[in-house]
Amino acid sequence: MQNPFESGHIKNYILLYVSVVVIMVLFFIASTLFNDVEVVERKVFPTEIVDKNISKISDINEESKNLKFKLMSKTY
Questions:
Q1: Do the beta carbons of residue 64 and residue 57 sit within 8 Å?
Q2: Distance CA 23, CA 29 (A)
Q3: Spatial CB neighbours of 36, under 8 Å, sequence gap ≥ 6
Q4: Alpha-carbon distance 61 to 75, whole Å?
């Protein structure tokens, strides 16, 4: 095998390396330019507590006391 530094082939290796780097940079630039960034709207959730839900929970608890089967207080 010949030494690439002595035979002059080192120019080809450097040219190959530089061309690969340039292609990578061009792909990076193209991907950042043509990538459309979507604006996502912020979701707002209601923070007020509705009394209807609390009354439903109390109704469910009263109904569960009258059932034939008793539910466990802890879930496993």
A1: no
A2: 10
A3: none
A4: 16
pLDDT in tens, 23-74: 999 999 988 888 777 888 999 888 876 655 555 666 666 665 666 676 777 7
Provide the 10 A C-beta neighbour count for residue 40: 6
Give one DSSP letter per residue of 6-59, joined into a string.
HHTTHHHHHHHHHHHHHHHHHHHHHHHHS-PPPPPPPP----PPPHHHHHHHHH
Whether the full predicted model's pTM is greater than 0.85, yes or no, is no
Which amino acid type is present at position 39? Answer: V
